[in-house]
Write a structure and sequence with these properties.
Layout: E1 10-18, E2 24-33, E3 40-50, H1 53-60, H2 67-86, E4 94-105, E5 109-113, H3 117-123, E6 126-129, H4 133-137, H5 147-154, E7 161-166, E8 169-175, E9 185-191, H6 194-204, H7 215-219, H8 224-230, H9 246-249, H10 251-260, H11 266-289, E10 299-303, H12 310-319, E11 324-327, E12 329-330, E13 333-334, H13 338-351, H14 359-362, E14 372-374
Parallel strand pairs: 1-4, 4-6, 7-10, 10-11
Antiparallel strand pairs: 1-2, 2-3, 4-5, 6-14, 7-8, 8-9, 12-13
């Protein structure tokens, strides 16, 4: 380890992830042993903590926040992280925190909040944060960051493997086998759960935050005219590297959908939920099918909250019949904790001074170390 000149063969890192679904905090405590880019690891603990209502409301519509709101929420969220983690009585050497994305506007900047000083002060440990800026400064998108984690977890000797994460935004990684000289590829495919969740909250007047098991979508029918219109979004015409956020598929975009088709009754709401669910499946399938013949994956590992939507998963199976599709479950890394695990791994790369971005994915000019360090000595 390079930090503090402490050379440890074993380190415990607490990874924190708050995604674009803005439903809460995922955390994963991981022990890494060894000193290379591919250490042995053991997942020691995983947990999900639901956001208080005021955070959910603010973070689901982040583009409406002004500078004063953002500054206040930065402190409030950082203090909340520290308070919630303290209740768990965990032991760790470092915290690696993604933070809550407020704005993602490459090639200019990407802003995540959750002031690290509160965790650093509470636990007297260093906090690694702001993982996206260094890549953007090298001309990259600053996203997606998890592909290097997919490579670490899933790369095989001779077989190519696909990895998909369906959070608020969906992103796809093609991990070539060691014997395949072609580069790892990854990009955001488009909306994951974000439009589905907005439709569900509107239909149920916030009684439900998401389509549990895809039951509402299963009761709906396709609105083909609406789907065809949604598939014309300019984002899908971009070639990778590309990344998306609330700027493309947030509240304003959903309001534009409602101008095209505002449900007038219960069945039409279910049709809207079905159609936005199918949009997610179709845009993922398009991305998979756009891969060149130089890649030949026959399986796909799927993580994120979208895995729990059976209707969405059935749609993917139908649209991608050549693939064996699995829910991520590998040595303690599951569909639920994979992204939090990923930031623990990115923290491991940081403390060992390894590069962590993939220029073939983000478009950066070169590979660089990702993250900044908040040290308790600076408090």
């Amino acid at each position: 380890m390079i930090i503090g000149n402490v050379h440890k063969k074993s380190v415990n890192i607490l990874g924190l992830m708050t995604g674009s679904s803005a439903d809460g905090l995922d955390l994963c405590l991981v022990n890494f042993s060894g000193d290379g880019r591919s250490p042995d690891y053991e997942v020691l603990y995983s947990h999900e903590i639901t956001y208080p209502h005021q955070f959910q409301t603010s973070f689901r519509n982040p583009l409406e926040l002004n500078d004063k709101d953002i500054s206040m929420l930065d402190d409030e969220l950082g203090a909340w992280f520290a308070s919630e983690i303290k209740k768990l009585h965990l032991s760790f050497d470092f915290i690696a925190s993604h933070g809550q994305t407020i704005k993602h506007e490459p090639p200019h900047f990407s802003l995540q909040i959750g002031n690290p000083k509160y965790m650093s002060e509470t636990f007297n440990c260093s906090v690694i944060y702001d993982f996206r800026t260094a890549d953007i400064e090298m001309g990259g998108q600053g996203a997606p960051l998890i592909p290097i984690v997919d490579q670490f977890l899933f790369q095989q000797e001779s077989l190519d493997v696909l990895a998909l994460n369906i959070g608020g935004i969906a992103n796809l990684t093609m991990v070539p086998g060691v014997n395949n000289s072609n580069p790892l590829l990854a990009w955001d495919t488009g909306p994951g759960n974000t439009l589905i969740d907005r439709a569900v909250r509107l239909f149920t007047q916030d009684k439900l935050a998401y389509d549990q098991g895809g039951h509402l979508a299963a009761q709906g029918k396709l609105n083909l005219k609406l789907l065809d219109s949604l598939l014309e979004h300019e984002f899908y015409q971009r070639t990778p590297p590309r990344s998306a956020g609330q700027e493309q598929f947030g509240k304003l975009y959903f309001q534009n959908i409602l101008k095209q088709f505002y449900p007038g009754n219960e069945q039409e709401f279910k049709d809207l939920i079905h159609t936005t669910t199918l949009l997610t499946a179709k845009t993922i399938a398009r991305s998979v099918n756009s891969l060149s013949s130089e890649y030949s994956a026959n399986s796909m590992q799927v993580g994120g909250g979208g895995v729990l939507n059976k209707t969405l998963m059935d749609m993917l199976v139908k649209d991608l019949p050549r693939l064996d599709i699995y829910k991520t479950n590998l040595n303690g890394v599951t569909q639920a904790n994979k992204e939090a695990f990923g930031f623990a791994y990115l923290g491991y790369l940081f403390v060992n001074d390894f590069t962590a971005n993939l220029p073939s994915v983000t478009g950066a000019q070169k590979a660089v170390t990702l993250g900044k360090l908040f040290d308790p000595k600076t408090i």
